């Protein structure tokens, strides 16, 4: 096989079907529909100008033999706007593994971007660290929010996918909540006795292995973990009729003010770039667009 037969290029929308087929072969247990739905969502979402929409592929005769999905997003706080990229779903056919470094090299070429890996397999941790990545989340905290007290005067409401305005929230918050509701997440607003409106996004998750396997939701977004602690009782009581008893948080240890269990056996997350990601923000990542 000559080197000229292989090239690394951006994935185009016309490649969706063949890329989905390759990923289905590469990830046992994930259906073709799983990959197709996620790729269609990537095709429809907003992407920061000048960055790839889907990621990169190794092209051999017009067909993908390797793929690395990239999910770029813009995040804005009160100080600055930053670009993040979720590195996701790397797979190369065995016969072409010698060309795999082409994917990882081109995928991390932007110095201004903060790259994150939120689902690394345990055996890849040392490899990721040698590539210059640092851990920003060491594990998961399995909270039992219904065991927390409901603060006096607190109320909670579910946000529908077609909501156009939410009292007390900026338009950007409303768009974030409704967009994730359309992805199948549970978007909520807790209102305190003092009149604050606190946004939350949660997602049902599958616990496929291990001894901790509660009916659970993953905390995808809140402004600050302290706000989740404040609203945990109300959230827990809303989730019980839905058959969920636990909310999983990215954490670096036990979370004061919550009842639950911390584990370092799963949930480690890495970053590389100018900005350390904060906990409790998994918006627009593979976990949301593709599902747990």
What report would you give on this structure?
The chain has about 290 residues and is of the alpha+beta class. The protein folds into 2 domains: about 5-140, Gcn5-related N-acetyltransferase (GNAT) (Aminopeptidase, 3-Layer(aba) Sandwich), CATH 3.40.630.30; about 140-265, 3-Layer(aba) Sandwich (Aminopeptidase). It has 7 helices and 14 strands. It has helices at about 15-25, 30-45, 100-105, 125-130, 170-180, 225-240, 285-290; strands at about 5-10, 55-60, 65-75, 80-90, 115, 135, 140-145, 155-160, 185-190, 195-205, 215-220, 245-250, 260-265, 270. Strands 1-2-3-4-5-14-6 form a 7-stranded mixed sheet. A 7-stranded mixed sheet has the order 8-9-10-11-12-7-13, with helices on both faces. Strand 11, helix 6 and strand 12 form a beta-alpha-beta unit. The longest helix has 15 residues, at about 225-240. The chain is globular. The two termini are about 35 Å apart. The mean pLDDT is about 95.
Quick summary:
This protein is about 25% helix and about 30% strand.
In the CATH hierarchy, what is the superfamily of the largest domain?
A: Gcn5-related N-acetyltransferase (GNAT)
CATH architectural type of the largest domain: 3-Layer(aba) Sandwich
Per DSSP, the total helix count is 7
Do you know the CATH topology of the largest domain?
A: Aminopeptidase
Helix content: 10-25%
The coarse silhouette is globular
Total domains, how many?
2
Largest sheet: 7 strands, mixed
Q: SSE string, helix = H, strand = E?
A: EHHEEEHEHEEEHEEEHEEEH
Structural class: alpha+beta
The stretches of 5 or more residues where confidence is low (pLDDT under 50) are none
Protein name: Acyl-CoA acyltransferase
Organism: Bradyrhizobium canariense
InterPro entries: Acyl_CoA_acyltransferase
């Amino acid at each position: 096989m000559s080197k000229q037969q292989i090239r690394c290029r951006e994935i185009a929308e016309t490649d969706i079907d063949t890329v989905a087929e390759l990923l289905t072969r590469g990830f046992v247990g994930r259906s073709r529909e799983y990959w197709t739905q996620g790729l269609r969502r990537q095709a429809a979402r907003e992407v920061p100008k000048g960055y790839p929409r889907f990621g990169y592929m190794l092209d051999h005769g017009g067909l993908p033999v390797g793929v690395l999905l990239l999910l770029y997003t813009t995040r804005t706080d009160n100080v600055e706007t930053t670009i993040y990229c979720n590195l996701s779903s790397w797979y190369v056919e065995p016969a072409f593994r010698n060309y795999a470094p082409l994917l990882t090299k081109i995928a991390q070429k932007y110095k201004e971007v903060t790259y994150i890996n939120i689902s690394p397999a345990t055996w890849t941790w040392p490899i990721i660290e040698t590539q210059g990545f640092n851990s920003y989340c060491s594990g998961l905290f399995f909270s039992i929010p219904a065991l927390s007290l409901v603060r006096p005067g607190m109320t909670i409401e579910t946000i529908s996918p077609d909501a156009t305005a939410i009292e007390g929230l900026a338009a950007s918050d409303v768009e974030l909540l409704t967009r994730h509701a359309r992805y199948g997440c549970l978007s909520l607003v807790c209102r305190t006795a003092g009149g604050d409106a606190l946004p939350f996004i949660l997602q049902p998750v599958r616990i496929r292995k291990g001894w901790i396997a509660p009916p659970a939701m993953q905390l995808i977004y809140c402004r600050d973990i302290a706000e989740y602690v404040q609203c945990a009782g109300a959230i827990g009581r809303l989730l019980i009729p839905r058959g969920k008893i636990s909310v999983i948080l990215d954490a670096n240890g036990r979370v004061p003010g919550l009842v639950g269990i911390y584990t370092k056996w799963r949930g480690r997350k890495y970053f590389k770039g100018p900005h350390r990601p904060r906990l409790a923000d998994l918006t627009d990542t593979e976990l949301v667009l593709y599902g747990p």
